[in-house]
Design a protein that fits this description.
This protein is mainly alpha-helical and about 250 residues long. It has helices spanning about 30-45, 60-80, 85-100, 115-145, 155-200, 205-210, 220-250; strands at about 10-15, 25.
Length: about 250
């Protein structure tokens, strides 16, 4: 049994001749990312149809619960309603992350198993962090912050600043990809073990059963519950919490 852990498939390549950026690649990650966005958009449309002030239905109750959860998450971790403007972004980030992680349950490759996805999120978050720091202390104050507590610490402060988006992206990416690889390796190992053991049965029966990965049933499903459900939801929550705290701390100056 062959086990492939190569990256996302490339469906289409369009030469652009643009320096640095290179050619346009229609990758599996890009396609599934659009699928994720369509799922979230469709869910939002479904939950927010025919909203009422009184006598609300279960669908609207779920929508209001999700909105209240997003409000509570931001306000609890920022100490009030000062950062309410962040709520739509935080909710969108969490929804995109968790749907991207859980979509692997359908057999599709998770977009978050590609570092470019988390890198894009981290760059957006880093831009917001930097913008809030400049807004809080001014551009000169932002630059001066790299020299504290003493000037000799400037290179280390710069590295620390750059490390923020890198650590956010790599933490999320590493956990999701490792889950996919571990699941795949265990499934492949069990399939090989099943083929070897059942192949010991003599005759046509053994030859037939050796092609059926019987041992692969059960354990991979249990591991999938952890890596796809628990770990996927946890990584989405951690990335969102770090985003809230970093931006809130930056705004405090």
């Amino acid at each position: 049994m062959n086990f492939d852990i190569s990256g996302a498939k490339i469906f289409l390549k369009i030469p652009t001749g643009i320096p640095v950026l290179g050619d346009f690649l229609l990758s599996e990650t890009l396609v599934i990312s659009w699928v994720v966005m369509l799922i979230i958009t469709g869910l939002c449309i479904f939950l927010t149809r025919n909203l009422k002030v009184e006598n609300i239905g279960k669908r609207q109750a779920i929508a209001e619960m999700l909105v209240e959860s997003a409000n509570k998450l931001v306000r609890t971790n920022t100490g009030g309603d000062r950062f309410d403007r962040m709520i739509p972004f935080v909710a969108a980030l969490f929804a995109t992350s968790i749907v991207s992680n859980l979509i692997s349950l359908t057999g599709l490759r998770s977009p978050t198993a590609d570092l470019s996805t988390e890198a894009a999120w981290a760059i957006v978050v880093f831009t917001m962090i930097t913008a809030n720091k400049i807004k809080a202390g001014g551009f000169l104050g932002y630059l001066k912050g790299f020299t504290t507590p003493i000037f000799i610490m400037t290179p280390f402060n710069i590295l620390s600043e750059i490390a923020t988006p890198i650590s956010m992206a790599c933490r999320h990416f590493g956990n999701i990809l490792s889950g996919i690889v571990i699941n795949g390796l265990i499934y492949a190992a069990l399939a090989l073990a099943s083929s070897a053991l059942l192949g010991l049965i003599p005759g046509a029966v053994g030859a037939f059963l050796s092609n059926i990965p019987i041992l692969s049933v059960g354990l991979p499903a249990i591991l999938s519950f952890y890596f796809d459900w628990f770990s996927g939801a946890m990584q989405a929550f951690i990335f969102t919490m770090l985003t809230i705290m970093y931006i809130a701390n930056a705004a405090e100056g």
